[in-house]
# Entry
Amino acid sequence: MPRNDDVRFISSSIKLPSFSPPDLHHPQPRSFFSSLQLNPSGKFAKLPFNFNFQFNFGINPQPINFITQFVRNQPIFRRNIKNGSFHTVFKKSPLFCSATLALSDSETGPASNGLKSGDDSESLVQYKGDGSGAVTQSKSVGSNRAAEEERVLISEVFVRNKDGEELERKDLEGEALNALKASRANSALTVREVQEDVHRIIASGYFMSCIPVAVDTRDGIRLIFQVEPNQEFQGLVCEGANVLPSKFIEDAFRHGYGKVVNIRRLDEVMSSIDGWYMERGLFGMVSGVEILSGGIIKLQVSEAEVNDISIRFLDKTGEPTVGKTRPETILRQLTTKKGQVYSMIQGKRDVDTVLAMGIMDDVSIIPQPAGDARKVDLTMNVVERKSGRGISGGGGISSGITSGPLAGLIGSIAIYHKNLFGRNQKLNLSLERGQIDSIFRINYTDPWIEGDDKRTSRAIMIQNSRTPGTLVHGNQPNNNGLTIGRITGGIEYSRPFRPKWTGTTGLVFQRAGAHDEKGIPIIRDFFGSPLTASGNTHDDMLLAKLETVYTHSGDPSSSMFVFNMDQGIPVSPEWLVFNRVNARARQGVVIGPACVLVCLSGGHVVGKFPPHEAFPIGGTNSVRGYEEGALGSGRSYVVGSGEMSFPVMGPVKGAVFADYGTDLGSGSTVPGDPAGARNKPGSGYGYGIGVRVDSPLGPLRLEYAFNDQGTGRFHFGIGLRN
# Structure
């Protein structure tokens, strides 16, 4: 997040934390006032006492306490790879305030309590409260506590300024009068009830002090609340907010300029600032506020910057151990860096990123106060998997085989190492074998090249494969098996270049040729169509590859776009030179309980290319209702699909769909015109119904579709359509 350089964030003689009104329903067991005694010396004499009720707020937090407020309750991120759960604990600590409440009871007139004229007697009871609610009492003289509950008849109630004069602003006088509950004219009051009304006036937020004064008049006792209003808001100074947008502060205070500062409103603003940080998972809060002379409000914002990040390896029991992975390999995966304001959301993403390395079972981040008062140290606890290497097996389905008792079934075995040299580099040797298919692959991947700051990955691959040629050269008489053999080797580099966008470039050598069911190289099929572009038993080509991928998410309402381009490089006169482009797009839209998915793909080839590299049309991920490649095979193609899925029961969903595909009349331009020789229509559509079942592998799709020729067939697939 960019730092805020437009606002100077800077705490007055009057300090105002977030104001917490007193609990009027559960008053303190002891009164803040001494007992009330009325001994007037004359009809118009001022009563020999006054109540002094004044709040002095102050926020003066120790720097270390700010960080401690966030981390004392273990605000950690933890993600376990086994159950995928994510836990976070975070509590917002309130700001505390202290209040000083004093009552003085004095007599200045003639002796009325046995005192000589001119003598002064003063009693003082003072209570001081801290943030924990504890109250301490200092008392200079004794008083009759029982008199607290004695009621005194009040004839009039007024609100005046601290000098006893009328307030210039009648709206403030109205606010104070409206806050009163017990103090009404011609009512009998106790000291406690007067105290509670003083609380209410202060709690209205407009006044910094309130002193109740009782005066004996010929009409009875007049109760005057002498108040001191807050200053008018004239400006703002804010310190310490490096990531908080200046516009947010300006909007929060915009409607308060020229108005009397209201502590309640100020507390709401402070809460909104704290909320801004919490919504974004940032360690930040308002730690202090002051009202300076001239009506200037000064906010002190505290943001916890990351001081240090360390890696701690733990075993299954949670005890420290020695890790196999280099700490720098883990640290460079983190987007959280030193000097940044710590973000819990960013921390969660970092946990997910480290888990995505595939070599950890459990990852958690624990923030702790640093030696520097305004900074935080992060410790990432990681539990490595028992072994980063092993042997695995599995199975799958190949869409290129359309006949046989076990059509399309393949098995696989792999030997792998996921953490070579402790750098998260991966080596994989795999073999896949099916009824016709076979692929042997050696693959080495470095997910992040050392010394690169752009997260560039590198992959080196050597592969020997045999795949069915029925997609383009199907319908061989007597079910003669035609396979395409490829020997491939290459290197690719990939990196993210924008959010949700990745780019890949590489160089790949390929030698490809056709073979019959006995593995003998052939150059023509049964119909006399050539199987290679060069006329030899194999074609050689060196391809420069470029790919761009955009992904929004894996949800049904996600969007995806993929663009591929292969360019043949004429290293030798006999090597093939062609350009092939292919693009795919998918967009999902959720409409109530249903989801509409629209897919579009297309491509084109220019130059001399082998016929088996033509675009096949028809099949599970193309136009359903047709066998794989049975609709057409062309130099160009466009396929569009639309489907709507809806919930049926639990993880089961139903779907209706329709597809359309065409080779744009390019089937005859493919060398040998294999589509024309097999009477493929070149364009057509399909429609049908299906069932979707959510699984760890992705949506399992079972569908039945009809084509425009009036025939139908079942289709099975895994995952969303490409």
In short: Residues 1-64, 73-78, 81-144 have pLDDT under 50 and may be disordered. The longest helix spans residues 263-279. The two ends are 35 Å apart (CA to CA). The chain is about 10% helix and 45% strand.
